[in-house]
Design goal:
86% helix, 20 helices, 534 residues
């Protein structure tokens, strides 16, 4: 590679456009996550953490796992790269014909799966939460809730296809905003429907299933106008012999395996939690919901803005540009995730108390949740990094590489979950996920280098050291701040929330200053991209 190519690579890779697209997705995701957080706050206040909430969490996990496998996961893994390739080679009409045929095939398969799943739900629940088998009331409620919510998969698969098509046209705002609709319906079910469904928690919990199904429909409908503007229509097309469909089929099995391993790890954690004390499943879920905020705002936005761009570079054979953009995304993820980890570890206790501790959610529940949140936060950089590295393999049409990573993830998570769940109960389960994801990310980065050549690991490692050093100092500065919050801030949600928000706002420029002191060039690069707007 010549010196001219080295100089031109950052400009040609479209870092500015990528970072602004990630900003658009991030802004929409912030709104969605805030509403999701409001949903969790209301849920915790109304239902607390008990056998009813454990039943709902497991019942929701069942369609959620399959949604991630056959919905957004599938679209991110192989549909978007193939659709982008069709746009490049066959034009818009050819890409739409492919998408219609694929949707018809997917809809038929998922509808069949929904029917079979409802019939086989007792066995599914027994596998998902074996500890519930010894608790007849919990098992029975989980079974009923899961059967009602299982058709949610149909709507989410349709929404995921719409998201993939719109993202391929670099239209990010509407699909990123679709989850807002879901959260609005969930909030409406909590505040409007819960009182109408009965007087006991086991009766009222059914109101949330209505919110889940209605939210799924809403997520589809909100994207339809934007799809129509691109020219796409949801029409049945039974051309399953389309060469692009065959290409998806060849990519699908290894891709589903690698994606499925992540979900199997979730099942392992859920199954382990079902054997621990009552409420552990809910504590883990409450903590994971808080972790989803930085993961969703930053990881989801970075990954979703990245996939269509690197898919197009890969389809054109622009490998150097592809690698430059992946390297930039990884360094940007370190810049964001490491200080977030420091903040969650140090301020996790006050954060959980402000958000959840009210109504049926007790101080003991808050303490248990905050410890688990800290264990999850340790792996935040790996969780976000995985969202960037996995699509890189699918853009290169190398889905077998993540299979190897999936084996590493499955083995390490199983081993660490067994050991750490025995030693540390709920926090041990969360820590096992963090360790397993970190091991898997390291392995996949090694495989990506072998597949595509050097992607600037030295720059990535140096960025990690610089941002890590700044984050450690930030965390140390936050320790006395946390003590002051606990000692001097008056009791009550409003003053505590205001004080915590002020600390977070002040921590942002402090971290940027620390990162500059550590001579991290990425900070200045991001600032220039934002100011120059190009």
């Amino acid at each position: 590679m010549t010196a001219e190519q080295v100089i031109r690579a950052p400009r040609d890779s479209g870092r500015g456009r990528y970072f602004r697209a990630a900003g658009v997705i991030g802004a929409a995701t912030v709104v969605s996550r805030v509403l999701g957080l409001a949903r969790e706050i209301a849920f915790a206040a109304i239902f607390g953490a008990n056998w009813v909430t454990d039943a709902f969490r497991i019942a929701y996990v069942i369609p959620y796992v399959l949604r991630r496998l056959l919905g957004e996961g599938a679209m991110s893994a192989f549909v978007v790269p193939v659709f982008t390739e069709q746009l490049e080679q066959e034009g818009r009409d050819g890409a739409f014909r492919f998408a219609q045929s694929l949707y018809t095939l997917f809809l038929t398969c998922v509808a069949t799966l929904v029917i079979l799943g409802i019939l086989a739900m007792p066995a599914v629940v027994a596998v998902m939460a074996p500890g519930f088998v010894r608790q007849p009331a919990t098992f029975d409620l989980t079974l009923k809730l899961a059967r009602i919510m299982f058709p949610y998969m149909l709507f989410m698969m349709t929404s995921a296809l719409a998201m993939g098509i719109l993202n391929s046209f670099y239209r990010f705002a509407v699909p990123a905003s679709a989850p807002i609709v879901m959260n609005l319906f969930a909030l409406a079910s909590l505040f409007v429907l819960v009182p109408l469904f009965g007087t006991t928690p086991q009766e009222q919990i059914y109101a949330l299933t209505v919110g889940v199904l209605a939210g799924g429909v809403g997520q589809v409908l909100v994207q339809v106008p934007s799809l129509y503007k691109t020219g796409f229509r949801f029409r049945p097309r039974f051309n399953f012999r389309d060469p692009a469909i065959k290409k998806v089929g060849l990519l699908m099995v290894p891709a589903l395996f690698s994606i499925g391993v992540v979900r199997v790890n979730l099942l392992i954690s859920t199954a382990a939690a079902s054997f621990v004390a009552v409420g552990t499943v809910s504590f883990i879920t409450y903590a994971e919901r808080l972790l989803q905020f930085p993961m969703g705002v930053f990881g989801f936005s970075l990954a979703n803005a990245l996939l269509p761009r690197i898919s197009r570079h890969a389809a054109r054979g622009e490998i150097e540009t592809f690698k430059d953009l992946v390297s930039f995304a990884l360094r940007a993820s370190l810049f964001i995730s490491l200080p977030a980890t420091a903040g969650l570890v140090v301020l996790g206790g006050p954060l959980v108390r402000v958000i959840y501790e009210r109504g049926a959610f007790t101080p003991a529940d808050a303490a248990a949740t905050s410890v688990i949140l800290g264990a999850f936060a340790v792996g935040l950089f790996a969780f976000i990094g995985m969202q960037i590295v996995m699509p890189a393999f699918y853009a290169l049409k190398l889905p077998k590489e993540p299979i190897r990573g999936g084996v590493v993830a499955l083995a390490t998570n199983l081993i660490f979950t067994v050991i750490l769940a025995i030693l540390f109960k709920g926090p041990g389960i969360a820590l096992a996920i963090s360790i397993s994801t970190t091991c898997t990310l390291g392995y996949l980065l090694h495989r990506l280098r072998r597949a595509a050549g050097p992607i600037g690991f030295r720059r990535i490692a140096l960025a990690g050291l610089r941002f890590g050093g700044a984050s450690v100092i930030l965390g140390a500065l936050l320790i006395p701040v946390r003590a002051a919050l606990e000692r001097y801030v008056p009791a009550g949600t409003l003053p505590q929330a205001a004080a915590l928000l002020a600390v977070v706002v002040a921590a942002v420029p402090a971290y940027v200053l620390l990162a500059r002191l550590f001579r991290a060039p990425e900070v200045g690069e991001v600032i220039k991209i934002i100011l120059r707007r190009k």
